[in-house]
């Protein structure tokens, strides 16, 4: 029940922070545009004076894409590299923003102020960067663990003739790796919350406290986290269902597709904020912290 | 249609056409006819035959009525085998004896015999096969230590003259002294033209872990290329190549009488017709007969289930493991479609049986292979219906019953004649039954046709090798794929579009009818094309079979300039109509430059579309490197398309076949928006773990 309450309260907080939500969307769009501008120029150079461009707008054409890839392989490969670099920058950028975002949910009544938001981001960045490195370590650990899990499943499946059982075992292994990754990510979310709420300077202590919190509120934290994850899944299904109705390449369809896609992106960003807000609410409620004295960051800075 | 699912064969094949009394059973105890090298005129006295019959009866051998499959031989029956083989599952081995009767149909005296010992390809890492493949082939990896080999325990003429010590291993293709896939056996007495030689060969086969085509995987056994197999004596010499990573096989037609002994728990799938089954307390002995074929393969597995169906009088048996049941109807429906298509297209399937083996996924290297009257299929069990991999494999492998099975071209030297023609057939059949645009994939809004798929594989690597080249001489395995499968298929699609479907159908029919149960070459195919089409098409094949160039037409440039204003525009369409009083109408002088980028030349049509809707259709021989066409029309050019109906499947770039006068970015924007969305998602994924 508390998990559901936290979700509702978190969602309300996100709604109250619409400016922040919008701001995050704009950032996401700008980053994506950095990549899409050269990509579009590549497409335009190749397709603008050929009928194939129009064909691709109408339907997927394997042969045309194959020609495109063959003739633009160096450029496409460059774009992929650029995408990776941009992804890493965006990852760091989000680590920078997270402190500011979480602080918004510490005191949701306070009006959004860009200056104070950015100051908070700066204030927490070093600690959040450390948490990011810990997160990276956790990802590496999970992947190492996954190779052990898959090796075990391989050993187990080696003696099983039934291919369906084998596939299910492998699927379970992959699923458990994913769940593990999400679980550790959830713990790191609480570590971020603890860092902001208690202005905790030692990130390892924050992680330890987060683990303790999750351990003592195992059911609630899991229900909340995977409940919101399930919502993201529903959103995905919903998107693809509606997207399936949009056929053709008329101006209206293009516009409708664009709007649908952006609504989906915005909703996903909302869910990301909801993770923070709801978990913050849950943490506060279960830790008995109902009101906060906002940290006077500006003075300290 | 009758259909059954069972762990046991539904029935033993009843005699089909003409029954003939024949001696069957433990033939290794059978007294053998006298002369080791006999002339074709030599006739076994009736008394001896009766004596043998009696001897067998007394010695406890089973006498069974054996069905002769065809009333009249369909082929020359040059290489005939009687084989008795025992599977030893715990050792993953075979113990076999074969009696080979080989007819010398050549005008030469034969001094030596050549044999394929294919299983020796897996003997060690030094074999030509392993050197060429590097232990990786057909999405499969060789498991070190799980070697395979064949040992000749004894080889003698039927009169008992021992030839074992005379065996020599030769490497005609690459002089690799470590390769033991070809064996030479000198004959003590030359075999005269028209003569027959009978040999008794005892052999032991250690099966490898399934890597390529044959081997074991747990209790599943795919037994192909397993017995000492005589080469083809052709044009005054032996055609007996080593087993290469990028080659398949070549052999003479004959009759195969094969007795397979397996532990009782095993279910056997084999080429040909099951004519008798014997059982002891622990074993099952199955006797198969296959006529007018050039190979014999079988599989055994205690887990096999059988699904049986009929197409007219042809019995189709699919052997599969129970959890792969989901694919059964897909495989069966696909081969029935193929049977139907081939029957109407070029001629009926003459054999009474067709066996399909669906290997387990862990033995996928054994899947997708053809043997006469037996094919192996293969696909992951979960394959969604929109992805037609099971159908594609089944149809392709079935097609080999025609192009390889009956029209037995040399797969070592002219692989395109079976793989290329078969891929062309596969494209046609898949297109007919599953839709041209959706014949491979129709899933989540993504559609891919087999023609596109084959074309894509071809266009990435169009010019490293000519199609006609011994398969092991291709640059690599990919080039083999391009030149044996994809490029020839595109060549035949192009030829079909050039000559017309009706003429092409007649060509394929004539080629099949003329060359079934024989060994045609590329020249024979070309001759049929020339004869049926009534055109000399050598220029076509000279380019695409023998050369390494490529075909690529492009619209290089288009331009339109306002020239003058006239009172009346006379075009071919309106010249006979009343003058139009429009003094303001302009004439545009337009130029179109077409370019041939590649070396290959084919006549091509192109369309010039004007902004007023007019379309001019023209053709270009393609001989010049570039050509300029000029038009004076009352409108500007809108766009130009070369090969608008996409007839030239050999063209490696369809995108440059069009050029638009006014750039259009609608499509580009639409794609960009889609990409934008996916990039945004990807960025969010990164952010989630920040």
Summarize the structure.
The complex is a heterodimer of chains A (301) and B (690). Chain A has eleven helices and no strands.
Low-confidence stretches of chain B: 1-65, 567-581
For the biggest sheet of chain B, the summary is: 8 strands, mixed
Please tell me what the overall shape of chain A is.
globular
Count up the helices of chain B.
11
The CATH topology of the largest domain in chain B corresponds to Immunoglobulin-like
What's the number of structural domains of chain A?
A: 1
Percent of residues in helices of chain B comes to 10-25%
Rg of chain A to the nearest angstrom? 23 Å
Shape of chain B: globular
State the end-to-end CA separation of chain A.
40 Å
Beta-strand share of residues of chain A: under 5%
Question: Structural class from helices and strands of chain A?
Answer: mainly alpha
The CATH superfamily of the largest domain in chain B is tricorn interacting facor f3 domain
Query: Largest inter-chain interface?
Result: A-B, 66 and 56 residues
Derived structural class of chain B? alpha+beta
The count of helical stretches of chain A stands at 11
Task: Characterize the main sheet of chain A.
Answer: none
Return the string of H and E elements of chain A.
Answer: HHHHHHHHHHH
The count of strands of chain A amounts to 0
Mind telling me the CATH class of the largest domain in chain B?
Mainly Beta
List the main descriptive attributes of the protein structure presented here:
heterodimer; A: 301 residues; mainly alpha; 11 helices; 86% helix; B: 690 residues; alpha+beta; Immunoglobulin-like; Neutral Protease, domain 2; six-stranded mixed β-sheet
Could you outline the blueprint of secondary structure elements for this entry?
The complex is a heterodimer of chains A (301) and B (690).
Chain A: H1 2-16, H2 18-47, H3 51-58, H4 62-71, H5 73-106, H6 114-158, H7 163-197, H8 203-216, H9 218-245, H10 251-287, H11 297-300
Helix pairs in contact in A: 1-9, 1-10, 2-3, 2-5, 2-10, 5-6, 5-7, 5-10, 6-7, 7-8, 8-9, 9-10
Chain B: E1 4-6, E2 18-22, E3 37-38, H1 46-58, E4 64-68, E5 79-88, E6 93-103, E7 110-116, H2 128-133, E8 136-137, E9 140-141, E10 149-157, E11 168-169, E12 182-191, E13 196-206, E14 215-217, E15 220-223, E16 229-230, E17 232-234, E18 237-239, E19 254-263, E20 267-270, E21 273-279, E22 283-293, E23 298-301, E24 305-311, E25 314-320, H3 328-345, E26 353-357, E27 369-371, E28 374-376, H4 389-399, H5 419-434, E29 441-443, E30 446-448, H6 450-459, H7 477-499, H8 501-515, H9 522-533, H10 538-546, E31 553-565, E32 586-596, E33 604-610, E34 615-620, E35 626-633, E36 637-642, E37 658-660, H11 666-688
Parallel strand pairs in B: 5-19, 25-26, 26-28
Antiparallel strand pairs in B: 1-24, 2-4, 3-13, 5-6, 6-13, 7-12, 7-16, 8-9, 10-13, 11-12, 14-15, 15-23, 17-18, 19-22, 20-23, 21-22, 24-25, 27-28, 29-30, 31-32, 32-35, 33-34, 33-36, 36-37
């Amino acid at each position: 029940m508390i998990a559901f309450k936290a979700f509702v309260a978190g969602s309300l907080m996100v709604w109250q922070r619409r400016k922040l939500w919008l701001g995050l969307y704009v950032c996401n769009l700008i980053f994506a545009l950095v990549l899409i501008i050269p990509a579009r120029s590549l497409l335009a150079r190749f397709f603008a004076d050929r009928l194939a461009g129009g064909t691709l707008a109408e339907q997927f054409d394997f042969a045309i894409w194959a020609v495109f890839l063959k003739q633009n392989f160096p450029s496409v490969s460059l774009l992929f590299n650029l995408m990776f670099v941009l992804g890493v920058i965006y990852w760091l950028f989000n680590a920078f923003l997270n402190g500011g975002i979480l602080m918004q949910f510490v005191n949701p009544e306070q009006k959004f102020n860009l200056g104070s938001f950015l100051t908070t981001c700066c204030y927490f960045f070093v600690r959040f960067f450390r948490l990011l490195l810990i997160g990276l370590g956790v990802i590496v650990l999970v992947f190492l663990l996954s190779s052990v899990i898959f090796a075990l499943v391989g050993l187990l499946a080696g003696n099983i003739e039934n291919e369906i059982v084998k596939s299910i075992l492998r699927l379970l292994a992959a699923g458990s790796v994913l769940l593990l990754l999400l679980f550790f990510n959830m713990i790191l979310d609480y570590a971020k919350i603890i860092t902001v709420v208690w202005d905790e300077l030692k990130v390892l202590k924050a992680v330890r406290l987060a683990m303790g919190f999750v351990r003592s509120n195992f059911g609630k934290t899991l229900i909340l986290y995977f409940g919101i994850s399930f919502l993201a899944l529903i959103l995905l299904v919903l998107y693809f269902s509606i997207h399936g109705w949009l056929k053709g390449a008329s101006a209206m369809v293009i516009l409708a597709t664009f709007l649908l896609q952006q609504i989906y992106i915005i909703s996903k960003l909302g869910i990301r904020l909801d993770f923070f807000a709801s978990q913050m609410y849950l943490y506060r409620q279960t830790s008995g912290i109902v009101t906060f004295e906002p940290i006077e960051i500006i003075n300290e800075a | 249609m009758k259909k059954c699912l069972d762990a046991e064969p539904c029935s033993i094949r009843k005699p089909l056409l003409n029954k003939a009394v024949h001696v069957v059973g433990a033939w290794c105890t059978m007294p053998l006819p006298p002369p080791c090298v006999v002339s074709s005129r030599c006739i076994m006295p009736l008394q001896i035959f009766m004596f043998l019959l009696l001897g067998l009866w007394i010695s406890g051998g089973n006498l069974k009525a054996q069905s002769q499959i065809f009333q009249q031989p369909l082929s020359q029956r040059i290489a005939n085998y009687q084989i008795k083989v025992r599977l030893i599952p715990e050792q993953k081995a075979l113990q076999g004896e074969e009696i080979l009767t080989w007819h010398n149909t050549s005008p030469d005296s034969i001094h030596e015999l050549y044999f394929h010992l294919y299983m020796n390809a897996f003997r060690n890492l030094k074999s030509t096969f392993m050197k060429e493949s590097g232990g990786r082939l057909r999405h499969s990896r060789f498991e070190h230590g799980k070697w395979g080999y064949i040992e000749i325990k004894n080889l003698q003429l039927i009169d008992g003259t021992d030839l074992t010590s005379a065996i020599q291993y030769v490497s005609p293709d690459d002089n690799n002294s470590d390769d033991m896939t070809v064996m030479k056996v000198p004959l003590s007495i030359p075999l005269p033209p028209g003569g027959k030689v009978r040999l008794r060969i005892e052999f032991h086969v250690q099966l490898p872990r399934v890597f390529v085509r044959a081997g074991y995987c747990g209790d599943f056994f795919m037994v192909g290329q397993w017995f000492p197999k005589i080469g083809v004596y052709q044009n005054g010499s032996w055609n007996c190549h080593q087993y290469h990573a990028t080659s398949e096989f070549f052999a003479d037609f004959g009759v195969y009488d094969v007795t397979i002994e397996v532990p009782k728990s095993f279910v056997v799938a084999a080429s040909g017709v099951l004519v008798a089954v014997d059982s002891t307390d622990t074993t099952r002995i199955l006797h198969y007969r296959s006529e007018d074929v050039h190979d014999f393969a079988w599989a055994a597995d205690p887990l096999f289930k059988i699904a049986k169906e009929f197409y007219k009088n042809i019995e189709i048996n699919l052997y599969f493991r129970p959890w792969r049941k989901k694919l059964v109807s897909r495989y069966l429906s696909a081969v029935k479609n193929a049977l139907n298509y081939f029957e109407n297209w070029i001629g009926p399937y003459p054999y009474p049986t067709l066996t399909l083996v669906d290997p387990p996924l862990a033995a996928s290297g054994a899947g997708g292979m053809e043997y006469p009257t037996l094919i192996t299929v293969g696909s992951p069990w979960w394959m969604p219906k929109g992805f037609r991999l099971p159908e594609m494999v089944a149809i392709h492998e079935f097609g080999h019953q025609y192009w390889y099975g009956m029209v037995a071209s040399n797969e070592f030297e002219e692989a395109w004649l079976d793989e290329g023609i078969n891929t062309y057939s596969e494209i046609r059949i898949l297109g007919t039954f599953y839709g041209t645009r959706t014949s491979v994939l129709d899933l989540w809004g993504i559609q891919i046709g087999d023609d596109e798929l084959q074309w894509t594989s071809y266009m990435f690597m169009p010019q490293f090798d000519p199609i006609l080249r011994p398969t092991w001489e291709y640059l690599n395995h990919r080039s083999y794929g391009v030149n044996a499968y994809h490029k020839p298929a595109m060549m035949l699609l192009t030829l079909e579009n050039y000559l017309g479907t009706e003429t092409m159908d007649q060509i394929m029919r004539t080629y099949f009818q003329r060359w079934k149960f024989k060994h045609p070459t590329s020249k024979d195919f070309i001759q049929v094309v020339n004869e049926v089409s009534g055109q000399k098409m050598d220029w076509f094949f000279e380019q695409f079979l023998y050369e390494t160039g490529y075909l690529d037409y492009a619209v290089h440039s288009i331009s339109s300039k306002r020239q003058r204003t006239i009172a009346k525009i006379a075009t071919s369409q309106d010249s006979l109509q009343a003058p139009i009083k429009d003094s303001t109408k302009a004439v545009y002088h337009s130029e179109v430059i077409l370019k041939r980028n590649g070396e290959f030349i084919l006549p091509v049509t192109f369309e010039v579309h004007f902004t007023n809707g007019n379309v001019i259709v023209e053709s270009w021989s393609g001989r010049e490197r570039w050509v300029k066409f000029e038009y004076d029309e009352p409108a500007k050019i809108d766009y130009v398309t070369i090969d608008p109906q996409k007839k030239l499947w050999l063209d490696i770039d369809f995108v440059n076949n069009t050029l638009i006068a006014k750039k259009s970015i609608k499509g580009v924007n639409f794609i960009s928006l889609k990409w934008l969305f996916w990039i945004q998602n990807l960025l969010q994924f990164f952010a989630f773990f920040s």
